[in-house]
Amino acid sequence: MARGETDFVRDRASALPFAAIGLVVALGHLTLFPNVADLDGFYHIGHAKVYLEGSLFDTSLPWATRSIIGDLGGDLWWGFHVLLLPFAVLGDVALGARVAALTLTLSLGLTILWVLRRHGVAWAGGWAALFLVAVPNVSFRYLMLRPHVVSLAAAVALLSVLVRGRWWQVVLLSAFISWVHLGLFWIAPGIAVAYAVARIPVTVGLGRESPDAGVPLRQALPAAFAGSVIGWLLRPDALVTAALLNVQLIQLFTQKATGAPLTFAAELSPLGIEELLRTTWLFAVVWVGAGATFVWAASRDRLRSLGQEKATLLVTALLVSVVFLGLTLLSARRAMEQWTAFGFLVLPFAATLLPNGARGRTPRVATAAVLAAYLAWGAWRHTLNVSEVAFPADSLQEAAEFLADRSEPGDVVFHAKWDNFGPLLAHNRTNHYLSGMDPIFQFAHDPGAYWEFFYMSADVSVAWTCNAFPCVSGVATDSYEVLRDHFGARWVLVEPRRNPRLTLHLLNDPRFSLVLETEREAVFEILPSDATSEGAGL
Q: What is the pTM of this model?
């Protein structure tokens, strides 16, 4: 083969991993179109628009009138919103959100590819593409416009530079994680601790390599802690944001422990073992098998074939994944992202430790067949998520634009679901709303007002509502009075599919006037108390 032809083949081979990742990412987002993966992305792109229209250093959020975020100001995701500014410039909310989400997913896939190639994994492109689709429910979360996609990529890169890198790289990546996603400030120190736990037995058992590419323990832990603090401080109103972090972490878990029926997202509830196995069956089996292979190889002194660097990475990733599996089962199912990501990193290294008999032609053919069946099942699960979990890209757009045209600046819109805040903020910054993001911020602002919201939001009690749970321990009040006087609202936005009882009550109560009805939502105006004589005695 001529030299020119050899170079052409080499160039094509080097481009294949990028093509594989690009194809998987593109297919994921194309199959999601015309929907978007979740509603939080609207809030993030909307907050980026707030910074474009005002000041990048003004983190106040007056649109959240019944939230401690609106009370204090501060932005837990300030760095993420800064990263979204180029996409917010696009103008169209749906377009900006789609392009940003596609970019984040692609960045995650390329980060995994970089890590695998950096540590000498054969067929790194195939492994990285498989990473993106390994667990369908997690793959769906990779399509979201949310900071966890960025922080996950940075966390995996952090593990890589710990086992082969410099202390200043640890500082930078740790700072980046907390700058983008302050709620996960603890993940960098946590990975550094796992690295320390793994590095000591690996270096004792295998001997220290010379030169030693790993970050020394005396540097790794301080660097991770210092970076996390730096990332927190590199934002406006750092002290105020720390107060919000306390609400998001400490107060959230305190309230969860009470068992009160707070309307938190399902991702904050534990994942049962049965559901975990049903949704991750093959990955869970392979992950357990990889762990067993590691134990078997360690007992027979076969880890030397990996060398210190790869063995340390394998053990650290295994430790981190075990911890996050525990968090998934005991605390919050969204920890699946970290469990599966770090658990996946174990697989290509554990595969090289398999006995020769397990790598023959017959096992390879069987593995390919099982993988093909699993990918087909995963594609079905993905279509199920798209049909049952995804949201229209124009969610609440018509209602938000109607309210912006019809109402006065600062008019409060009572929205019956807390997740309505994101689309409303993205499309309409003329009005003010209730809570911003997680309901715990609304609860921290005023527990009584939160419970009054809860009964109507959950469609439990619609003609009247109550300021405590259970209601017998509080005061019941007519819903009209609560909406008008307690929340200061002039408008009510409901989705009849999600709140059929509340919608019916608003239609039948003459103190509310239906002013807009779309395919998915309805807007009511709250009339003055003396507008109808019929409403006076209700």
A: 0.93
